[in-house]
# Entry
Amino acid sequence: MKFKYILLSIFFISCSRDIDFIKPSSDLKKISVIEFDVFPQNSGRIIDQFSCVGWNELIGCPLSLESYHNNSDVELTAVPSGNFKFLRWTGDIESTDNPLRIIINADIKIVAEFSD
# Structure
């Protein structure tokens, strides 16, 4: 009986206190999304240094939509198919560098353009 009284007392005491919920820290890294596209369609693919880590990294996996922590240093490589050649990057970033190294701080769209 004494045990039940102690348990009930603990329950009521714990329920009567204000509970501070854990709040996420404002300094947590935010996530940005890159949307990838290739023009013309099927003329190549885009890979990053994180694509398909493991046995498949030699061929890389094509990217379409990826999330990165803000301030991430990302290296993108445009890989042409068949007789196509890399021409330029367009979208929110314009460059002819391949590979392209960028720091991610916002959602962006990047298009790899190829010519035949």
Helices lie at 2-16. The first strand starts at residue 31 and ends at 39. The first helix runs from residue 2 to 16. The chain has one domain: 21-115.
